[in-house]
Amino acid sequence: MSAAPTIMLRDDAALRVFDTGQGSLPVVFQHGLGGDAAQVALNFPDGPSRRRLTVECRAQGGSSAGGKRPFSIAMFADDVLAAADAAGLDRFVVGGISMGAAIALHLASRHPDRVLGLVLVRPAWAFDTAPQNMRPYVEAAELIRRLPLDEARDAFASSATSARFSSEAPDNLASLLGFFARENADVFAEVMQAIANDGPGVTRDGAAALAIPTLVVGSGIDLVHPLATARELAETIPGAIFTEVVPKATDKDRHFAEIRAALGGFLDRNINNQDQS
Question: pLDDT tens digits, residue range 238-272?
């Protein structure tokens, strides 16, 4: 990763853009909801042959929210494409984690002439808006917007949702509880509510029409990113490769290592020899 990000102005939002600035293979890779470039670095196999570009989406990481509303996956995708344009990336691999995967799927569907390949890591959306697995984000956002933060956290921690996640998906629960401690919790609650009620804007037929190398990575013990969603996308996108990795709740280090290995192997075998002109 470059030593320092650059700042890209979009409307009145200041977005941090990270560009490794090296390598012949350009990859635009995005973080999940509430994540940042550091999350991407844990999952992506950076190396001398790959130039990675990551935008910290509005009100996430070190990027400001700006005044434009509503927040949406399409808005974030437009910001990412603008950053790729500014970096001079004509054609690139696009990918991401969770929300980042939804952004990547949106871009691949809307701009097939720009996309060399697609990587969907732990996708939370397939083709529907506001899927049930994203409902806990709406629940958390509504509490933050209605109550003082300490009361909101206590209410969520004592909820039926929290009890279920504690036993079935503890890693998801830790992430959700962390949102109540964010410095920008109020504005981020707007982001959570809007994005959880949104979707990639890609139909099943649209995904079935994609004609690019695709990798889909899923894992278990995860109620926000169901393994069934990853399998559904892999079965719909022609020729997609599906890889299941060890759950983050079981072994974080191994989880990230297996994702990096899957991505590195996919890029080396399926993308590096493509004509990028």
Answer: 999 999 999 999 999 999 999 999 999 999 999 86
C-alpha to C-alpha distance for 269 and 276, rounded to whole angstroms: 15
pTM listed for this prediction: 0.96
- Beta carbons of 38 and 51 less than 8 angstroms apart: no
Residue 44 lies in a domain: yes
The last residue of a domain, from among 145, 175, 197: 197
**Could you list the residue range(s) of the whole structural domain that residue 105 is in?**
6-129+203-271
- Are 97 and 234 contained in the same domain? yes
C-alpha dihedral sign at 203, 195, 44, 81: positive
Tell me if 207 sits within 8 A of 233, measured CB to CB: yes
Q: Are residues 89 and 221 in the same domain?
A: yes
